[in-house]
Amino acid sequence: MNVWENDAILPLETLQTCLAAEEWEGEAEEVEEGGAVQLTVAGTLRQMCLDLGVVTFRAEDIGGLYVRYPVFGRHEIDGLRSSRFKAWLAAKYFDAMQEEPKGADIEGALLLLAATAEFSEPRKLHTRIGSIGGKIYLDLCNEERQAVEIDADGWRVVDEPSLWFLRGSMKALPAPRPGGSLMDLREFVNTSDEDFVLLAGWLLASLAPDIAYPILAISSEQGSGKTTLTNLLKSLIDPDGTGGISPFKDADALCAAASSRHVVAIDNLSRISGEDSDHLCRVATGMGIVRRKLYTDGETYESYIRRPLILNGIAFAPDRADLLDRCFPISLLPLTTGRRRDRELQAAFEKVRPGILGALLTAVSAALRERDYDPAPAVRMIDAAAFVMRAEKGGALPWAPGTFERVLMAKEREKQVEAVTGNPIGRILLELAGERAWEGYVKTLFDQVKSRADDEERMTLPKSPRGFGIALTRLPPMLRGLGVAVVREEPRREFGYWVRLSKMGEDVTTGERRGINRFITSML
Question: What is d(CA 487, CA 425) in angstroms, rounded to the nearest whole number?
Answer without folding.
Answer: 15
